[in-house]
Amino acid sequence: MNYGYIRVSTDKQTVENQRYEIRMFCRKNKLKVDSWIEETVSGKVDASHRELGKLLENVKKDDLIICSELSRLGRNLFMIMSILNQLMKKGAKVWTIKDNYRLGDDIQSKVLAFAFGLSAEIERNLISQRTKEALERKKMEGIKLGRPRGSSGKSKLDGTEFAVSLMLLAGTSVNQMAKLYGTHRETVKLFINKKDLDSNENLRRIQKTFGLA
């Protein structure tokens, strides 16, 4: 069964743009939407409290969910990954139009799912760590929360080397990675080049580590 999933944040937004995108995508790929799921709710709301939650309960193996982009599923990486994990465990597929993801029961999807999960875990841990450190500094020294712009040469992507390498192996584009991490594509390109992540040596090492070699 094929589902078209549409979500808008406010009643001032229209579902028609997303519906049109999905219909044009299905026409191009010779697919048919059997059921539409539409809701007006913030992506911050947990999936279990949305229409999406009902879909997650009822979806079956080989069912396909089509949406305009991954951000329609949730507003942060950890939430999106949790939803994708539930769907992949059931053997369902997720296809997005704008960011061109094809997630299903294949090695590329498993690599991407692993990379997403690793990235989400790293992101959550880093946010927690930075927040605790910033609050402690503020309490002890009166320093404002967060570091001043340009005070560090660190990249927003530091700590994601393994995940980014996996996504390179899976054929994920720089644009897709930039959307995933909420940064500019040039930041991703600079990070890849600086860390030499697209080198044959690094990619062979990642393949061996992940058991893809």
Query: What fraction of the residues are assigned to beta strands by DSSP?
Result: 5-15%
Mean pLDDT: 80
The assigned structural class equals alpha/beta
DSSP helix fraction:
40-55%
Q: What shape does the CA trace take?
A: globular
State the strand order across the main sheet.
2-1-3-4-5
Q: What integer value in Å does the Rg equal? A: 19 Å
Q: DSSP helix count?
A: 8
Largest sheet: 5 strands, mixed
How far is the N terminus from the C terminus?
35 Å
In short:
The protein is an alpha/beta fold and 213 residues long. Helices cover 51% and strands 11% of the residues.
Describe this structure in words.
It is a single chain. This protein has eight helices and five strands. The protein has 213 residues and is an alpha/beta fold. The chain has a five-stranded mixed β-sheet with strand order 2-1-3-4-5, sandwiched between helices. Helix 4 runs antiparallel to helix 5 (161-169), helix 5 packs across helix 8 (200-210) and helix 6 (174-181) crosses helix 7. The longest helix is centred in the middle third of the chain and has 35 residues, at 107-141. It is globular. The two termini are 35 Å apart. Residues 144-152 have low confidence and may be disordered.
